[in-house]
Amino acid sequence: MHWHAYTWTGHGPDLKREAERRPDSPDFATSPLPPMRTGDWLAKPPHRIAETFDDATKAVEWMAGEYRPLRPQSDTIPLGHRLAVAADLLPRGVDVQWGEWLHGGRFITIGMICCPNLHVDYPCPYRG
Predict the structure, then answer these.
(1) Would the N or C end of the chain have less CB density within 10 A of its end CB?
(2) Could you tell me the residue range of the domain that residue 6 belongs to?
């Protein structure tokens, strides 16, 4: 198993465009929006992959590095807890995705998606 990292930052109201966030939409592949289901990230073009990891610890460290500078002061979930949960889930094949509202109505998604995936049957975007 390995993990692909994905991110999206944009205007939160854009997330309401759910049709293009579903893989059966003709706009899915070209839409910058994150998919509705975490595993569907694997159906996006490979250039959307931010990083790929063979080591779950390094994958969690990457997530922390992406999240720390953007972490809102209003975040009620301690970062240590987020990291512990991610470190537990990723080796067991469970995707981890964090989403947070930022200032000005913006939203960020940071996801680490297991490949192969337990919930979707897509080939690996790199090793397909």
Answers:
(1) C
(2) 2-115
